[in-house]
Amino acid sequence: MVGEDLLLDTTYLLPILGIRMSLKGFSELFPKLLDDYTVFYNPVSLVEAKWVMLRLAKKELQKKGCAFRKVQNRPRSSIKG
Per-residue pLDDT tens for 1-50? Predict the structure, then answer.
């Protein structure tokens, strides 16, 4: 298997980024894949993973009663920093 390439989909990148996925045996098998294959990912998968993380963060904030406010809707004078 050494010398073979493996392209990771977003589903397999999410656990690496700390998002829990129900992937049976992932924790045991994934380190072995890293040893046996040259692993690649598509940059588009990183963008998709970012969308997933933002959506989950938004849901979590809404559960806690916080509101997401769009910065671009505020007058420029109210934005500091």
Answer: 557 899 999 998 998 888 888 888 888 888 888 888 998 999 999 999 99
- Residue 67's alpha-carbon distances to 53, 72, 74, 76, 78, in angstroms, are 17, 15, 14, 20, 18
Query: What pTM, to 2 d.p., does this model score?
Result: 0.64
Q: Which residues of 41-72 are buried (b: 16+ CB within 10 A; e: fewer)?
A: beeebeebbeebeeeeeeeeeeeeeeeeeeee
Burial per residue of 2-25, b for 16 or more beta-carbon CB atoms within 10 angstroms, e otherwise: eeeeeebebebbbeeeeeeeeeee
**Contact at 8 Å (CB) between 10 and 48?**
yes
Q: Spell out the domain ranges in the chain.
A: 5-78
